[in-house]
Write a structure and sequence with these properties.
By secondary structure, the protein is an alpha/beta fold. The protein has helices at residues 2-36, 39-57, 85-93, 224-228, 274-279, and strands at 67-68, 83-84, 99-100, 122-137, 140-147, 156-159, 163-170, 181-182, 202-208, 213-218, 233-239, 249-258, 268-269, 284-287, 294-301, 305-314, 319-323, 328-332, 342-345, 347-350, 354-361, 366-372, 383-389. The relative contact order is 0.12. It binds copper (II) ion.
Length: 407
């Protein structure tokens, strides 16, 4: 019961608290003035109060509807990102139908193996959009919208030349319609216009994977950034015809932003804040859906070659992806798997709605921290750890390792 309460509290108090307080202040002022003063003075003072009110509301204009945020007007091609009270009511009515997901994070090891075949094939993929409740941080819950119940969605892997037959199903517990736009597609909307699915519906379309690369896919329905900042994105790898160079370890990492009305760390179910999204001020910036998602599950041995597929769901920030204590031997910039990779790179940019593929050999045991090197973001959650075990080679690194200091 605590969760819906915190949600309604945020909706009413943060959305309309000031407005409600203002109205009541006006009534109180009127009552007080009537007792203490004549009609003339009451009217004069009320006009002054009204003048101050007008001054306060002039920059915002008048609210148009009972919605959150109260004053947000937008000019996008589709419906705005605001939360009308009707939607909040619908959400609360259906609250108990949403699946509660124990761990929203997609495991970074959850990647299909390299494709061995050389012939192109028809590859059938089914994805399910599902709206769920899960924890962003201990005690902080979000209404996530997902592909297959995790953030990011599944890592899809096909080969250049394959015909991909993609079926998108929208779970019947969803409250919103969804679709899928894959950046690996050459065709209208990247598939979005062929996959609009209402709750309970399912649609299929085909596309030829013509360009090798590592691509973002995401929902592009309605107010697209709202759908994306609820968790609807993932990566699809189109392997080049000759395959990718062999590596020892592959990891799937995706950065993204979450916009809550509650401040960073505020407990309870969080209300989506469209104003913060338009301002580009996320409360949470994370790898793989929640804070701490990559703290324990990335391991490698000294001497192994590590490949990380790094995606960025955005919707506002560009990631300055960096691994503390490592140098990327190769960076396939912006997910380009056709050109030769850049070499010996410290930090690489991953644009919103883009991806990169980085590779490096791990030379020395220890903890290597993955960050967005716009480092204040680390405190909002965007970090992970690659744990490297094995023999220490003093010709590579020699020193007494203390805890802390970049870890
Ligand atoms: Cu959607």
């Amino acid at each position: 019961m605590f969760e819906p309460l915190s949600y309604v509290w945020q909706y009413l108090v943060q959305g309309f608290g000031l407005f409600i307080a203002y109205v009541f202040a006006g009534i109180l002022l009127y009552l007080l003035l009537r007792r203490l003063h004549s009609w003339k003075i009451t009217v004069a003072l009320l006009v002054m109060f009204l003048g101050v009110s007008v001054f306060f509301y002039v920059p915002n204009g008048l609210p148009r509807a009972f919605e959150y945020p109260f004053f947000l007007k937008t000019y996008g091609p589709s419906a705005g990102p605001v939360l009308p009270f009707a939607n909040v009511w619908e959400f609360l009515k259906n609250f108990n139908n949403f699946e509660r997901v124990g761990d929203i994070a997609r495991n970074p090891l959850d990647i299909p193996p390299p494709i061995e075949r050389s012939e192109a094939e028809v590859v059938k993929i089914e994805l399910v959009t599902k709206e769920v409740i899960a924890e962003m941080a201990p005690g902080v819950t979000f209404n996530y919208w997902t592909f297959n119940g995790t953030v990011p969605g599944p890592f899809l892997r096909v080969k250049e030349g394959d015909m991909v037959e993609l079926t998108l199903k929208n779970d019947r517990t969803s409250l919103h319609a969804h679709n899928i736009d894959l950046h690996a597609v050459n065709g209208p909307g990247g598939g979005a216009s062929a996959t609009n699915v209402n709750p309970g519906e399912s649609k299929t379309f085909r596309f030829k994977a013509m360009n090798p690369g590592i691509y973002v896919y995401h929902c592009a329905h309605g107010n697209v950034p709202s759908h994306m900042t609820h968790g609807l994105y993932g990566l699809i790898l189109v392997e080049p015809k000759g395959g990718l160079p062999k590596v020892d370890k592959e990891f799937y990492v995706m950065q993204s932003e979450f916009y809550s009305a509650g401040a960073l760390g505020r407990q309870g179910l969080q209300l989506f804040d469209a104003q913060a999204m338009l301002d580009g001020k996320p409360q949470y910036i994370v790898f793989n859906g929640r804070t701490g998602a990559l703290a324990e599950n990335m391991n490698a041995e000294v001497g192994e070659t590590v490949r990380i597929y790094v995606g960025n769901g955005g919707v506002n920030l560009i990631s300055s992806f960096h691994v503390i204590g490592e140098i990327f031997d190769r960076v396939y910039r912006e997910g380009d798997l056709v050109s030769s990779p850049a070499k010996s790179v410290q930090t690489t940019l991953v644009p919103a709605g883009g991806a990169a593929m980085v590779e490096f050999k791990v030379d020395y045991p220890g903890n290597y921290v993955l960050v967005d090197h716009a480092l204040s973001r680390v405190d909002r959650g965007v970090w992970g750890v690659l744990h490297v075990t094995g023999k220490a080679d003093s010709t590579v690194f020699d020193g007494v390792i203390e805890s802390g200091g970049g870890h």
